[in-house]
Design brief:
The structure holds two protein chains of two kinds. By secondary structure, chain A is an alpha/beta fold. Chain A is built from eight helices and ten strands. In chain A, the strands form two sheets. Chain A has a six-stranded mixed sheet with strand order 6-7-8-3-9-10, sandwiched between helices. In chain A, strands 2-1-4-5 form a four-stranded antiparallel sheet, covered by helices on one side. Chain B is mostly helical. Chain B is 86% helix and 0% strand. In chain B, helix 3 (72-106) packs across helix 9. Chain B is flat, with a radius of gyration of 26 Å. Classes of the chains: A alpha/beta, B mainly alpha. The A-B interface holds A 65, 68-70, 88, 90, 92, 94, 96-98, 100, 102-104, 106, 113-114, 116-118, 144-145, 147-148, 165, 173 and B 168, 170-171, 173-180, 184, 188-189, 192-193, 195, 269-272.
Chain lengths: 274, 272
């Protein structure tokens, strides 16, 4: 693969919007301690789309929660936009595997939920929320309850909710892994469109190799117990990306190379990656 | 095409039959319990008629019904304080249950301090405390209400705590990430999502409230259905006693029905 560059250490640290320096996490459970993350160095440039790829239980979600300020690292430090990240900050938007919408609120109210929690004026953000909903094709559903929407539509509403307070960094924890394959493809396109339009930095956790390659500028592979980042692969496809690139030999070669990377670290350990 | 017509007739015929079966199926949840109750009452009536059992021991349903209508004003007047006190005890239990649940869920320290004691307290048979309430609060409605409240609030507390803690972990993470305070989370997320749980607790509590008030009336009262039941049976007026129990069933149904109706309305709000 001549077009991909592999590095284990991010280049110039000052350049990075998200910077993890020797981040480690140990869970104390009773008398024993479990080391979830050994030591992770990673950097994400401003405006970059980076995926954290790895099998279930490799600590990639934990790392994401540390970057979000929702978990504390037991080792090392995280900075976002040059400031240390030690508690939740409102310049970050989050998406989870489930849309976690409030069933008793309309879609619009759900999208405005972060604004309400931040005690910012709701009317000022109403038009932005409606614009976001229009971008993902949910404008006509603004007054509907989540129950009336499909899984993919709910997750699109969750994208809007994550972006409503104009965050600069979007963190996503396997946001589409509960969706069917067809919906998932649609969601990937929708997400990329939002990311390009709003010019945000994105850190995306997934265990799907194809999804990581399709979405990202760079894919970081996490693996091992305790885990570290074992590969850093640049994805060279032009933007905006078309879904057809998934059928090209280059795409499949990249997927194969990533699969090999994961396999190298986990040979014989019986870990499934798809 | 006679054959085709015949075939479609057969099909239509079966569809019509299907429809009949379906409407019967739909009615059985109402028909069967009603039929069972009627059979039971008829058997009771027949037993009294043929066995010659003394009406003080077991009056026939017809006699109970006759008493019910003859003494309706009396029975109704006694049902008013019972209903009101049950309702007040229930509402106090809701407030106390939800309040304590909020405290326990908001603060880990408070939970550690309170929870084992609450469970321990629940293990005391409340009826054993009734004489103490009379010593402390007298024989008025305060002591009955306090007694009924203690009987009633625990299921409310358990259900509400379960509901408040049922919130999705990622939802709580989202709240923290946007800087929501614990009180904001409590009122904007936890309580609304606990609504179905709270109603389950309420359904148990409303029936317990009536039990609590009736037992309280057995012990102290000069009024109320509990008093009337005790009074009538002490005068060997078993039919009147049973007529009062019929009224009690009606009161119970109305109160439970009100809570169930509230649940339906809230469910509509919840699900949209």
């Amino acid at each position: 693969m001549g077009t991909t560059v592999e590095r284990l250490v991010a280049d110039d640290p000052d350049d990075m919007y998200v910077q993890c320096a020797r981040v480690g996490k140990v869970y104390a459970t009773g008398r024993s301690a479990v080391q979830a993350i050994k030591s992770v160095d990673l950097g994400v440039r401003e405006g970059e789309f980076v995926s954290l790829l790895g099998p279930s239980g490799c600590g990639k979600s934990t790392l994401l929660m540390i970057v979000a300020g929702l978990e504390t690292a037991t080792l090392g430090a995280v900075t976002v936009a040059g400031r240390p990240m030690d508690e939740p900050r409102t310049d970050i938007g989050i998406m989870f595997q489930d849309p976690t919408l409030l069933p008793w609120r309309s879609i619009l109210e759900n999208v405005l939920f972060p604004i309400r929690m931040m005690r910012r004026p709701l009317p000022a953000y109403r038009s932005r929320a409606l614009e976001l909903l229009e971008e993902v094709g949910l404008k006509d559903f603004a007054e509907h309850r989540p129950r009336h929407l499909s899984g993919g539509m709910r997750q699109r509403a969750a994208i809007c909710r994550a972006l409503v307070h104009e965050p600069r960094l979007l963190l996503m924890d396997e946001p589409f892994s509960a969706l069917d394959a067809i919906t998932r493809d649609e969601m990937n396109i929708a997400l990329l469109r939002m990311w390009e339009h709003h010019k945000i930095t994105a850190l995306f956790v997934t265990h799907s190799i194809r999804e990581a390659v399709f979405l990202s500028d760079r894919v970081l592979v996490m693996n091992g117990r305790p885990s570290t980042i074992i590969a850093d692969m640049r994805i060279p496809f032009a933007r905006p990306r078309q879904f057809a690139i998934g059928d090209t030999p280059e795409f499949n070669a990249l997927c194969g190379a990533l699969r090999d990377k994961i396999g190298e670290a986990y040979r014989g350990a019986g870990t499934e990656v798809h | 095409m006679p054959t085709a017509n015949a075939a479609s007739d057969v099909v239509l015929g079966t569809q019509a039959e299907h429809r009949d079966v379906r409407s019967f199926e739909r009615a059985t949840p109402y028909l069967l319990p009603a039929a069972t109750a009627i059979c039971f009452i008829l058997a009771w009536e027949a037993f009294c008629y043929f066995s010659g059992v003394h009406p003080v021991v077991l009056p026939p349903p017809s006699a109970v019904l006759a008493k019910f209508f003859r003494f309706f004003p009396l029975i109704f007047s006694h049902s008013v304080p019972t209903t009101l006190e049950s309702l007040v005890a229930f509402l106090l239990a809701c407030l106390l249950g939800c309040g304590l649940a909020a405290v326990v869920v908001l603060s880990r320290r408070m939970r550690e301090a309170l929870w084992p004691n609450l469970v321990f307290f629940q293990l005391i048979p409340k009826i054993a405390l009734a004489p103490l309430f009379i010593v402390w609060l007298g024989i008025g409605s305060e002591s009955r209400l306090t007694f009924a409240l203690f009987v009633t609030f625990f299921p409310m507390l358990i259900a509400t705590v379960a509901g408040l803690e049922h919130v999705d972990r990622d939802m709580l993470r989202l709240c923290r990430s946007v800087g929501a305070t614990r009180l904001q989370v409590l009122f904007s997320v936890r309580f609304p999502s606990a609504v179905p749980f709270i109603f389950s607790g309420m359904k148990i509590s409303i029936t317990l409230a009536i039990i609590g008030v009736i037992v309280g009336e057995f012990i102290t009262s000069q009024r109320g259905l509990g008093y009337l039941i005790l009074f009538a049976s002490s005068r060997q007026e078993t039919a009147l006693s049973m007529a009062a129990i019929v009224m009690l069933c009606i009161v119970g149904l109305v109160l439970y029905g009100a809570v169930a109706l509230g649940e339906r309305i809230m469910k509509k709000w919840y699900d949209g």
